[in-house]
Amino acid sequence: MSGLDWGVVGAYFFVMLAIGLYATRRVDNVADFFTARGRIPWWLSGISHHMSGYSAIMFVTFAAVAYDYGVTVYFWWPLTIGIGVGIGAFLFAPRWNRLRAKHGVNSPLEYLAVRYNLPTQQVLAYSGAALKVVDIAAKWVAIAVLLQGFADIPLAWGITLTGVCTMIYMAFGGLWADVLTDFGQFIIQFAAGIAMLVAVMAHLDGLATLWTMWGDLPSGHSDPVAGPVTTTLILAFLLVKTFEYNGGMWNLAQRYMAAPSGSRAKKSALLSSALWLIWPLILFIPMIAAPLIVPGVENGEESYIKLAQELLPGGMIGLLLAGFFSHTMAMVASDSNVITAVITRDLAPVLVRRVRTFGERGQLLFARITTVAFVTLSMGFALFSDPDGFIMTVVVSIVAATMGPISIPLMLGLLPWFKLHGSLAAITSWAGGIAVWSILYWGVEDATQAMTVGLPLLTSLVLYVTIGFLRPVETTAGNALVDSLADDPQAEAQPTTPDAPTLPPLELR
């Protein structure tokens, strides 16, 4: 990397920190810190939702899939997410927002104590928080691998640099810092992605590359299903991602909660869905075309690095690397904020009675300390992991497979069709899904990725639905909660009555 490249990367980090410090002006209490009190415009919420959904893993592990097998990577990953988020725009996005607007909920799991009971909330919170530590550790490793490939920086330094910067701006600015940096990162990513696409087309056949390269690529690279990606795996990912990206991955529920209303949360979800269907394809085209420019790369995870080094001039590599940072920091920042919300709102008050008595300033200080502690823990996990194969194992075999059982009771608990499904259905579905994943992951040597990803969620879904219908549970508070999520507060639905009351905050303890 040239001095100009390092200047671009340094400027990026400076801007991110400056945005984080600026965002502190908007944060007065934990409601600002975790959900911005519903003051984030729907379009910004949609962009943030999109940016929070992927990281530098895309330019390492998914780049390897694109290099080795071609366009199937688009059908396997962003297409399933785009469709899933589009479905969730109608089912889940408005309901997440109404939890905040009508009940003062600041954590995606906060409502579970009323919807089911406190033990159910705690089980899902602890299992999901543990999973997020591993998930975020994989993101740190991914960006460190890229840094090592571009600038020969040791993995430990790459993890530390990215982690500390993210920790600082998140601890100061909370969700506002996260969303504002997401927008800045989206602009950087757009410029870097277009630059790489133009460079690839200029090197090959110009604009005609978009339709001529397919005949020159290795056999099967134009097939929607190729290599380890099967139709069954794509369908399994569609099922998993529909739950995961509509709130099962908790940080994305926050984006809906932070929009001004349920109807605008729906619009933000539709915007995110459109971005998922279009933008990743633009990013993937250079990865798919890479065998024509840098053939013979033995380790596909290095293909995008070699492609950039081959095509991009000084300064542009720095911009591209800043784009990699933007991916990772966007996802990790949003994950850190939501895990802090879960710990602050759902776990700590149960463990330590004194936390319940904190005033507004005390709650905010506790949230910031928790942010620093969680990011530090995930960095430590990344520093002591073996990077060889770690990313793919975490992203597919662990996170995608276990997020389903955690998200089933969380997501379906919002919907009116399942409002008589009680804690027995919730806990059993979670335990059954995790048990199936454990058997497949550790006990079945020839288990396919489709089985590992799809069967745990399918098991949880069947158990939740079946037990709920066989053993229905009717609770006044739970039923009222679900019914209240059908429409926006009266003040939003009828602007002529701005003083219309909303439901009181949930008593979650």
Automatic annotation (TrEMBL):
Membrane topology: Multi-pass membrane protein
Stretches that traverse the bilayer: 6-23, 43-67, 73-93, 123-147, 153-176, 183-204, 224-240, 274-297, 317-344, 365-384, 390-412, 424-444, 450-470
UniProt cross-references to CDD domains, sorted A to Z: SLC5sbd_u1
Region (Disordered): 487-509
Keywords for the protein's UniProt record, in alphabetical order: Cell membrane, Ion transport, Membrane, Sodium, Sodium transport, Symport, Transmembrane, Transmembrane helix, Transport
Pfam families, A to Z: SSF
Major localisation: membrane
Segments of skewed composition (Low complexity): 495-509
Origin superkingdom: Bacteria
Subcellular location: Cell membrane
Cell membrane keyword on record: yes
Catalytic activity line of the entry: L-proline(in) + Na(+)(in) = L-proline(out) + Na(+)(out)
Family membership noted in the UniProt record: Belongs to the sodium:solute symporter (SSF) (TC 2.A.21) family.
Protein known as: Na+:solute symporter
Source organism per UniProt: Streptomyces oryzae
Organism placement in taxonomy: Bacteria, Bacillati, Actinomycetota, Actinomycetes, Kitasatosporales
